[in-house]
Amino acid sequence: MKIGITGVPGSGKTTLAKLLSKAFNYPLINVKHIVKKYKLGNEVDLKRLEKIIKLPKNCIIESHLLIDMNLKLDIMIVLHKSPKELEDVYKKRKYDNEKIAENIAAELQDYFFLKRKSWKKIFHIDTTSTKPKDLLIKTLSYIILNKQDVIDYSKELIDYALKQKI
């Protein structure tokens, strides 16, 4: 089974990918490491990246770039986190204001829903205030039960727009 994990930076992709990789005993493919290894730079040529990536029969692959790639995956997990928690994460990571605004806007506009592809199964999971172990349990149960979270940041979108004077 090929499982992809995507979401905005800070949503928990790497954490969940490591946990699932261990739980399933699948190899973990971190796209960020491939981009660095092949020196693909900040503006990644996704077609070239797709040619470089060779997915084994069973694997976990994670990146915010997956949503724009055409990889054959059995399951796509889209992680979401409240804009407030994302802002806190980005400040700790010392992102500049433009990068913070860009990533929060992507979450608020639900970029990952808008860009959806026809994967066999897609699970939207809210990671807000969720500890790693609980996220693993939630994810595994959602896969088994074919369930997902309803993500609605409409109030946060209005609050953010007013704060940013959009």
List the keywords.
Rossmann fold, 166 residues, alpha/beta, 46% helix, single chain
How many helices in DSSP terms? Answer: 8
- Portion of residues in beta strands equals 15-25%
Q: Average pLDDT, to the nearest integer?
A: 89
Shape: globular
Number of domains: 1
Largest sheet: 5 strands, parallel
Low-confidence stretches: none
The spatial strand order of the largest sheet comes to 2-3-1-4-5
Tell me which CATH architecture applies here. Answer: 3-Layer(aba) Sandwich
Summarize the SSE layout with pairings:
Blueprint: E1 2-7, H1 13-24, E2 28-30, H2 31-37, H3 46-52, E3 59-62, E4 75-80, H4 83-92, H5 97-108, H6 111-114, E5 121-126, H7 132-145, H8 154-164
Parallel strand pairs: 1-3, 1-4, 2-3, 4-5
Helix pairs in contact: 1-7, 4-5
Describe the protein.
The longest helix has 14 residues. 46% of the residues lie in helices and 15% in strands. The chain is globular and about 45 Å long. The protein has a single domain, classed as 3-Layer(aba) Sandwich (Rossmann fold). It has 166 residues and is an alpha/beta fold. The termini are far apart. Strands 2-3-1-4-5 form a five-stranded parallel sheet. The protein contains eight helices and five strands, in the order βαβααββαααβαα. The mean pLDDT is 89.
Gist of the model:
This protein is of the alpha/beta class and 166 residues long. It contains eight helices and five strands, in the order βαβααββαααβαα. The chain has one domain: P-loop containing nucleotide triphosphate hydrolases (Rossmann fold), CATH 3.40.50.300.
